[in-house]
What does this fold into?
Amino acid sequence: MLSCKHTIDQGTDYLDKELGFWRKVEMKMHLMICVNCRRYMKQLKQTIMMLSKGQFKKPSDQQVERLKKEYQDVSTDK
Amino acid sequence: MTEESLPSEEELVQRLKSNDAALFERVVKEYHSAMFAVAYSIAGPAIADEVVQEAWISAINAIHKFEGRSALKSWLIRITANEAKTRLRKESRSVSLEAVDENWATDTRFTEKGHWAGGNPEWDISSPDDLLAADELQDCVKKHMVKLPDNQQQIINLRDVGGMDMDTICNILEITASNARVLLHRARDKMQQVVAKFQRTGEC
Ligand SMILES: [Zn+2]
It folds into this structure.
């Protein structure tokens, strides 16, 4: 039986479908009986989702203006 | 988070190629943050802003050649990562993989037998929108992202923040797929712990 520690250690491989057949079966069985690891897997997905949508540093208004100007200059060159 | 979502990829690229400045501005606002995170993790805080600026300029000059084989975002992230890499002095960019297993053996979340020592409680804040709306939590996440070891920071930013595929990431960072996956998991696991601790204690 896979330990919880080993189960969560395979979390990324499981989500990315990188586990071989038997390891995947082992992991599924563990998740079926272990609420803590099930929660962990859900939380791992939530964490990834959060990172993909988070705004860590918004561009300043000046940066946006400068880039917009650059874009317009390049476009009108053509 | 954006007020309004961007049009479909196809329309987006088409309009960017035909001088739609208003849309370009929205694209900048949408993707700048992820590009900054990638630049920061590869080239460091001192030149991250410059790198992103350069990346945008390269992108502006190349957009008419963009064929849509990858998503626009991944394309921008790849330009950023390459720009960041070329800006780095050679000696500082050796990626150390030895530090990977730093504290696996002493992880206090688990008992000696590898069971959860104190269980793993459900999160109170759990939907993506609620997680993103919790300002203090987001500050905490940011603070810990930049504390990750360099190589973990690079991978999690390229993969999860930047949305790039693993093959391209391995090429950019010049590491093997199995190392990349281990590093990615260490980084994700650490961020899960940061969020979990914040939810449990309200502290960062
Ligand atoms: Zn378990």
Q: What stands out?
A: Residues A 4, 7, 30, 34, 36-37 surround zinc ion (CB under 6 Å). The mean pLDDT of chain A is 92. Chain A touches chain B at residues 3-6, 8-9, 11-13, 16, 18, 36-37, 39-40, 42-44, 46-59, 63-64, 66-68, 70-72, 74-76, 78 (CB under 8 Å). Residues 35-53 of chain A form the longest helix (19 residues).
